[in-house]
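Fold this sequence, please.
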Amino acid sequence: MAKGCELCFTGAKSVIFITGLCDDGCYYCPVSRDRLNRDVFYVNEVPVSTVSEVILELARSGSRGASITGGDPLVRSDRTVKLVRAVKEHFGGNFHIHLYTSGRYATIDVLRALDKAGLDEIRFHPTRAEFLSRAKAAKENTSMAVGIEVPVAPHIEEWVKDIIMRANSLSLDFVNLNEMEFVEPNARALLARGLRESPTRPFTVKGSLETAIRIISWAKESVEIPVHFCPATFKDNIQTRNRLVIASLRDLRWNEEPLASGTLLEYSCIAGKGVLVKREVYPTPNRRPIVAEEVVGDCSD
């Protein structure tokens, strides 16, 4: 398993959404409409505007690594290189950073700049066959771990197998398969292609899990490169929850109670009314609420 995946599994990685800008236009892209094709900047759902704010949030969350995503981070390569360098300088060389890109803007100069800044791992989503040459260039010209990460669904099974074969021929370090998501931003495009939401696995494309299992079985006999599958439920129920648990326990306030889900119950009095209320919130600095306030008692108690 790729090093970046090991840390994500335990919730030890923060997610840095460095820009929503992207020029690939994948029909299955699950990025929300308020982010896609907008130059916005988030860390763990917290909006930021500077590298310093990123470092503060990484420290608050207790992360031991970070994944840089988008959009395509290399649309803003200068910002991305600056961020990687600053994070490494602040947290040290053992702070693991991996990055996702289609490869469209992964020129030799950009790849070398990322390597020099300290990027540990780069994952290509080759929307075009020629972008695989960028993965080859990264493997041959940098010290970074280089892999492929693509979605999997029934209608692209042969394409995924071809990508795996090509990655194997280039001696890349790994291939990751992601269960294709079926969410509001991509639902119309997926329906137009005859794809449907799974009746047993909400928010995923029907048949994606079964397709991944077939591909994994095929890859075991056909290639030497490691091939892994990441179900959508794993990201939501384990990876994200573990990250929230770590953040909530580090940042717990006197009027809050941690929940097993990684969220918090926040208790407070409403001024002038004398009633005690509670609400469930995410462990972000602004305590973004999940549910509305509920009256649970009297402040005098």
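The chain has two domains: 3-244, 255-298. The longest strand covers residues 145-152.
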